[in-house]
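Same chain as my last thread, 129 residues:
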Amino acid sequence: MALALLHLYWALGGEFGVTAALPEANGAPLFKPDLWATLLIALLLVAFAGLAGLLGLDTGISESHLGLAAYAGLAVGGVLLLRAIGETRYVGFLKRVKGTRFARYDTWLYSPFCLLAGLAFLHLAWGRV
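reply #2:
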């Protein structure tokens, strides 16, 4: 939820931390997300938090709904693991561009977070499939 709030802050024009959040080449960001893309990411992060809560709680939810949530959890876990591995140039553990501010944060914070979150989603979802 904290990451969703951070993206909402950025969508509303906040600038704190944005330079460390975007991959860059030659000192310039590779892209500039617009309002709608940033809001979409915030919404997806809220959905991921809700899905993690649903998978982590043993509530009175029907088995069919939990099964659907489990498959969604496996998908989210897979996507997060792929993000951690990266696209081999600017993002992930396999990135080749390493001298930028984003690359340092990606190596020590973003990719490890995606790896751990991906594994956590797989763990939560696996027992429900």
